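ESCALATION

Customer reports they have been waiting on this structure for their group meeting. Please prioritize. Original submission:
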Amino acid sequence: MRTLTIRLPDDTAQRLKQLAASRGLSVNKLFEEMSTRMLSAWDAENHFRVMAAQGDVEDALRVLDQLDARDTASSQ
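Update from on-call: job pushed to the front of the queue and completed.
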């Protein structure tokens, strides 16, 4: 595991601390979870681009449906 230093404006850092506390998390865990979600979305986007390049429309539409379902579930 690595340590990463991030420079943020003071007000942003304070708001992230408040967000983490409201979720019962440390700021470190909050960043870990946000990073995991963003990387997952990036992986899905790249996977979709590969499928689109291969011309498999049905698989691409299935991925979009899965992303829509995941986004809907995480926003509830």
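Sent to customer with the following note: The two ends are 32 Å apart (CA to CA).
Escalation resolved.
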